[in-house]
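Minutes, methods subgroup
Present: GH (chair), OT, SY

1. OT presented the first of two proteins processed in the latest run. Sequence and structure tokens recorded below as shown on screen.
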Amino acid sequence: MEPIEVALITFVAAAFGAAAQGFFSQKGKNLADKKDIAEITTKIEEVKHEFEAEREDRRAFNQSRFVAADKRLDKHQEAFSLALELMQSVHRPECMKKVDEIQAWLKNNALYLTPRARMAMIDANHSASQHTTILDINRGTGNGSEKVQANWKVITDLPEILQKEADLPNFNTTSEQKPKLIDKDAYGNDIKIEP
């Protein structure tokens, strides 16, 4: 073999080796990229799945809150109607029947009412059941009118309390006029909640 052939073969072999090294190096990088892409895609899908699950949980929670708020409003309306009927029946023979009806209604619906509305309903129902007795005990004695008036006030304040507890925001309110929400604590004290 001639030296030129050896040099040519050596040159071709070196070029082929360099090209092969570059080819296999790039092939290795591509394979690593494919693995990285697969891992990244898997992680993206996991995060996406977690996000979708959380979003669905949030949607379900908000839906249940909407249903509960709707039910709560319905029960406040029912309580309001019962309160008016109670006021009308206090001085009639059917008063105790109405008191029993409200007691049964409370047994099935009290938890839908706000704490303040629930206590006002219980107190007014109790006052109505005692009102005739308070009147009879104090009739002709010249005293006790304060007890009668205080007892009657518990009954007559009930519709207004229920109305305030079920109060809805005005539909004419613009976004600039967002009302401050007010809630009640367990003792009936106002708690301001900024929107």
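2. SY then presented the second protein from the same run.
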Amino acid sequence: MGTDGQSPSYELASVLFMDIVSYSLRSIDDQTEVLTTLQKIVRESAEYQQASAKQEVLSLPTGDGMALVFLRDPIAPARCALEVAKSLQSHPELKLRMGLHQGPVRRHADIKEDVNVVGGGINIAQRVMDYGDAKGDAYVIFPTLRTRGGDNHVTPGMVVEIPAPSDKPSYFKVERSRPDQINEVLTFLISPKPLVELKIGRERLKVGDDQLSRWEKQWKAKSYKLEDAAQEGKVYTLAEKEAARGEKLLTRDDPLPQTMYRVDCKAGDAVMLEVPLKIAK
């Protein structure tokens, strides 16, 4: 409730959240330079200029970037993001993350009595941005000859443990490739036929950007994550253990796993599914 006993007034806003990748690792002089460059790029954006002239955008500094809160046109932040991205092509020294979201916000005076905003609209825009970090190299970590002997055959009802308990080591270790890395993406590619362009050896195989883009264009499908709360915290069932050892296949009568993915694809199609994993701070 507000101080006058009335409910706070919320607005539906479209938020563009931006921050500079590896900002904290730069020197103070470099921080000042790249932040000044970003501010100049945003101010020169036609979308920002139009919204600013109509007083339909709030600009909020965030230390290593900014949040632009558009109060009228819901498409304006997307167009602004495209304009900023285009301008960044001539500034390779400036790597930027951006997140977009539309949701409720409420105006609130900050410590300097300047207009600020709070609410889910801006919070979720920041979370979206957190998944938009510059991507590192992609690698095929399975199959390799060191994991399950290179056997990546699957069939309905089959339990595949990657790595297998008999592999040495029997686990994958995830390490940050740089100090500011915030997430890892596991990509599952399931196809009815072997991918002849992959030459499997004992070590992980680096995938080029062009190859990855072709796979995404061909096979990336819309997916839906499903959680069965009744299975949360439960250990392997006897049936799952037997299926993992190759002694049986799971059936519809067996308990569901806790996490499942429904994928929009046709029977017999190859399918590509991405699962983001956030790295704890």
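Chair's summary of item 2: The chain is about 25% helix and 25% strand.
Next meeting: continue with the remaining queue.
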